[in-house]
């Protein structure tokens, strides 16, 4: 069976462009999606020359209804699509109190609403074909909401929770899902957000190529959650196990004793 075609949002630069390169190397046809038509065309020429695969740029501003609809239509109708990589995303320029609300709303729209729409549509299409995979780029800040812009962290926590949530439902339909949680990764995201990457300790910054190669290794292992820099996987397992241990106590008839008011159910 051929690899099929991978549609990659945010493929005009950074992590998405590296995914396009690595997936082309693996023999996938590529549909790179982003707003910058020139960069997409240059990427397409390079990838088709270097890897001999079909690359079909799809210029789109995913926050615009009409553009997004074209991508959704393709996800629904193109039987050759076998992989969606949701990489389009923007970072914050300042902490919440120093940010324009409109900017935070826009970030949330792209990082959450758009990713949600594309994922739901791909999940339904791939499940009906009993074949496909979805890779969602979250961030390690999903696990550290106190350390960074609140809206950005919460948007990435959504990506993590949503991906975990659908994994169980989609598996019996032959659809693989993965949430990738990069730490700092050297891309243009920082410059776009007005952040000086030189202020970040170099030992905390991974090259985008290394990040994507590690994530694809996690994908090949069938991981639902991949944290590229985490050496001790037991730490993640412990966190997940602790979360699951809460389950029997989260929905009970009686309030916990520490909340007793003495008024009973009157
Ligand atoms: N770099 C990091 O340290 C880091 C860490 C954790 C997670 N991440 C996540 O990784 C993902 C990729 O980020 P990156 O670091 O590679 O940054 P990047 O180089 O700025 O890439 C962002 C991509 O999203 C596209 N994009 C932005 N707005 C768009 C829109 N309205 N419609 C369509 N495409 C749009 C951009 O292309 P156009 O401008 O051409 O549209 C670009 O290709 C993001 O989701 C980010 O949150 C990054």
From TrEMBL:
Pathway: Lipid metabolism; fatty acid biosynthesis
UniProt cross-references to SUPFAM superfamilies, sorted A to Z: NAD(P)-binding Rossmann-fold domains
Entry-linked InterPro entries: NAD(P)-bd_dom_sf (IPR036291), Sc_DH/Rdtase_CS (IPR020904), SDR_fam (IPR002347)
Transmembrane segments: none
Domain of life according to the entry: Bacteria
Pfam family, one: adh_short
Stated name of the protein: SDR family oxidoreductase
UniProt keyword annotations, A-Z: Fatty acid biosynthesis, Fatty acid metabolism, Lipid biosynthesis, Lipid metabolism, NADP, Oxidoreductase
Record-stated family: Belongs to the short-chain dehydrogenases/reductases (SDR) family.
